[in-house]
Amino acid sequence: MKVKPVNHAKAAEAFIEDTAHMDFHDERLWDLRQKRDQQMHILPEWQELRARASAIKEHTLANLPEYLEQFEANAKKNGIHVHWAADGAEHNRIVGEILEKHGAKSLIKSKSMVTEECCMREYLEPRGVVVTETDLGERIQQLDDQMPSHIVVPAVHKLIPDVAKIFAKHYHTDPNDDDAQSLAWQQRLAARPVILSADAGMTGGNFVVAETGSFVVCTNEGNADLSATVPGLHIATIGIERLVPRMADMGVFIRMLSRSALGSPITQYTTHFRGPQKGSEMHVVLVDNGRSHRLGMEEFWTSLKCIRCGACMNTCPVYRRSGGLSYGAVYSGPIGAIIDPTFNERKYSTLPFASTMNGSCTNVCPVKINIHDQLYKWRRVLAEHHELPFVKREVMYMAGKLMGQPSLYRAAINSTEVALSTMPRFVLYNWLNPWGKHRELPHPVKQTFHSWYKQNRLKTKKKEGEGA
Amino acid sequence: MSTSRDAILTRLRDNRPDPKAHPLPPVARLGDMDNGQARFENSLQILGGQVLERQEGDTLATAIARRFPDSKVICSAVPDFEGTIRIEDLGTPQQAASVDVLVVRSPFGIAEMGSIYLSEAQLHDLNSAAHLTQHIVVILSPKNLTANMHTAYMDRPEFHTANYGVLMSGPSATADIQGVLIRGAQGVRTLSIWWED
């Protein structure tokens, strides 16, 4: 059976109906966007930083095999075990084998979108490994059995009472606790014994430096540092696109990452791992999972420049009002909408349409990915591959015919104005017009621009011509 | 063992864009070059860090006693401060969880961010101590401030030599519950700077 496309519009509808949650979500993310703007205005060199970050990333991607080999050689010299995983299944098998070799039954981990891609928890848990997320937001999502709804703030769609209920169920705390400070303290108390008794720790990696064989991890809670330094075994799962050539390149990226993400100058912790700590073992699993294929997509390869700051999500009016979970994918928001179809074109065929094409995502992207252009290009690809739903396909076909012929178009516009002012609601607002579901159609105008222009300007022009 | 590695590298070579069209830009030294103490303190405060108050006649010990009156285990990672236990005597990474205040010296700070740097060299190979302790007091000299992230990465040798190197910018923090900013999440609850000459 063919996989069904994610019904983003329907899921978004449910999100919108819950006004309290949607309003908070919308305002919270817009606040992050405004804080990002404040940080940007502090730095006169912001646009130069973006241009450099983009150029460094494009160079690295064009030379990725060489930089990966350089990283591997240096990391090995530093005492790191380097593994390569073609896909999620291989990644999970590698991690499972490392844990088994160490007899590790409990794994504490910091946030990693790659492990979400690989469905690692679902693989390890039936094999007797207890996996505990140590990032507060990610832990809330794990306890609630949900995917992260945002790549930086995974539980941003939840309010305090939601968290209180989840903690009450799992940590036996007060279900009516309405204080974020006290709830965060409960998490600290619950996490400490798990961290102290863990057999192994896992982190992701925000950046990988070929020159030194290091990887860099950025967090605010310090949970990646706890996961990496307390147990005697550290496994880092990292996508192969995360490389930068030189340590000196890191300044460009660290100066923009947290400013773009949260509007803070830097994450509280920026940690550089170059080799195992004393008495410990370190493994890096380099994960492809479709990335090498994406590099060959002429119109979409630059999406691999992404540093996962989430700025495009925070600014997107559709994302802010539909919530990350409505995308039904590991990556949500504008960046998700251009990455997800590379994993499964049919399943994620609806996501490139979850955009108003306002271009704000492109403007805030610190590595200058042309996100809204790629959204448009995906729509074209999906149309060519017949992945458009019936109504959209038919409407697009008719629109194409209309727009291609000015006389037909003008006749249609005139009759639309008549229709908008005369037709009953049930004709205008039905399943053939999903646009009108939550919106009012535009007010009919008395006269179109074209006919006004014909009446007025054309006459004036003629007069001027006569006078000369 | 190497099949996936070779397959990935081959696919990347087949699929990549033309390397000649994407040259590597030279390393850049951009932005504000002020490496002063005032800039550092301002950035530190934005990220929730503090400067340990120094009253007339204070030593580090009296300043810590006033700031953390309830602390029992004060762990020293420096030769010139005693504390109640030395970091070398903690034994395992897990035992660092008993520490109330860790005193450590940072080789450099970054004025742009109010960040301090620590590696296994300062933590005596017990890196967990910087994160399991409740509070951290960092001794820093204003002479060892670098202006910004570019100068730090270009000029500090530690990024090329340490196995573990953390830039801490204020204490552990989170805003994961309804956007409320909380200082002191999973790691240190406070971070204080003690200026030395």
UniProtKB/TrEMBL annotation, chain A:
4Fe-4S ferredoxin-type domain span: 297-318
The UniProt record lists the keyword Iron: yes
Pfam families tied to this protein: Fer4_8, LUD_dom, LutB_C
GO biological process: lactate metabolic process
Matching SUPFAM superfamilies: alpha-helical ferredoxin, NagB/RpiA/CoA transferase-like
InterPro entries recorded: 4Fe4S_Fe-S-bd (IPR017896), 4Fe4S_Fe_S_CS (IPR017900), FTHF_cligase-like_sf (IPR024185), Helical_ferredxn (IPR009051), LUD_dom (IPR003741), LutB/LldF (IPR004452), LutB_C (IPR024569), NagB/RpiA_transferase-like (IPR037171)
Keywords: 4Fe-4S, Electron transport, Iron, Iron-sulfur, Metal-binding, Repeat, Transport
MF (Gene Ontology): 4 iron, 4 sulfur cluster binding; metal ion binding
Name assigned to this protein: 4Fe-4S ferredoxin
UniProtKB/TrEMBL annotation, chain B:
InterPro entries per UniProt: FTHF_cligase-like_sf (IPR024185), LUD_dom (IPR003741), NagB/RpiA_transferase-like (IPR037171)
Span of domain LUD: 93-189
Lineage start: Bacteria, Pseudomonadati, Pseudomonadota, Alphaproteobacteria, Acetobacterales
Recorded superkingdom: Bacteria
Listed name of the protein: LUD domain-containing protein
Organism whose genome encodes this protein: Acetobacter syzygii
